[in-house]
Amino acid sequence: MIQFQGVTKIYPNGVNALNDINFQISKGEFVLIMGESGAGKSTLNKLITKEERPTSGEVYVNGFNLSNLKGKKISLFRRSIGMVFQEFRLLSKMTVYENVAFAQEAIGVPIERIEDNVYLALKKVGLRDKASYFPKELSGGEQQRVAIARAIVNNPAIIVADEPTGNLDTKTAWEIMSVFEEINRHGTTVIMTTHNKEFVKQTKKRVLLIDNGSILRDYKRKVLTS
Ligand code: ADP
């Protein structure tokens, strides 16, 4: 479902952000991307979402070879990915409902279907009763839930989350992790960048550890049995 083949990214200023990266992520996996600041994690995410293009190598996502994507196919491809960011990126002048509905309007979903879809997405993140609130009336964790609802409302095959718990306290971070886990249980692939080592220890998910533009380790902690 996601495949990187010999992917190198050199930015126009000469920074070599990723170096001959190779990996594969299957449908339905939940993968944590870890590594120090500047290691290349965001660049990797941006290559998956086609916000950046590789300098060399190929990226395949959801059956698309991203190098060959043009025109209408780019918007089709973008629909298959939901994005979540550390700083939520909600529109402050719009209500919770409008923030989520906006994602549906952007891809031309018929108006009569939008309401059901938005309420379903809000229900999945536990915020159905706060549809008429504005982002500033919500806690950080609730705002991130809205952002997750917005990311899932178009039923993407993949969610790419860039440090989604980076601005949240420990308890709230775990609540947000649970929301992602629930979405993943229903078949959506989740790629999450994080600095939270507890996620690795306690959830034993696959980790891609990036260091200085390379994959240092690709591993899963073993479940300890006594
Ligand atoms: P991380 O997400 O792990 O912090 P990034 O992928 O953001 O790492 O950055 C990897 C390297 O690429 C860093 O040296 C960073 O300064 C550089 N970089 C990131 N984005 C750009 C850009 N748009 N232009 C030039 N250099 C960039």
Jot down its keywords.
single chain; 226 residues; alpha/beta; 6-stranded mixed beta sheet; globular; binds adenosine-5'-diphosphate
Structure notes:
- This protein has 226 residues and is an alpha/beta fold.
- The protein is built from 7 helices and 10 strands.
- It has helices at residues 41-48, 72-79, 96-106, 111-124, 140-152, 170-185, 197-203, and strands at residues 2-10, 16-25, 30-34, 56-61, 64-65, 81-85, 158-162, 189-193, 206-211, 214-220.
- The protein has a 6-stranded mixed β-sheet with strand order 6-7-8-3-9-10, sandwiched between helices. The protein has a 4-stranded antiparallel β-sheet with strand order 2-1-4-5, covered by helices on one side.
- A hairpin with a 2-residue loop joins β9 (206-211) and β10 (214-220).
- It is globular, with a radius of gyration of 18 Å.
- The termini are far apart.
- Bound molecules: adenosine-5'-diphosphate.
- Adenosine-5'-diphosphate is lined by residues 11, 13, 15, 17, 35, 37-43.
Brief overview:
The protein has about 230 residues and is of the alpha/beta class.
The pLDDT mean sits at 95
| Structural class designation | alpha/beta
Shape: globular
Bound molecules: adenosine-5'-diphosphate
pLDDT < 50 stretches: none
Please state how the strands of the largest beta sheet are arranged side by side.
6-7-8-3-9-10
Supply the number of helical segments: 7
Quote the beta fraction: 25-35%
In whole angstroms, how far apart are the ends?
Answer: 35 Å
Give the ordered list of helices and strands.
EEEHEEHEHHHEHEHEE
Overall number of strands: 10
Spatial extent as radius of gyration: 18 Å
Helix content: 25-40%
Largest sheet: 6 strands, mixed
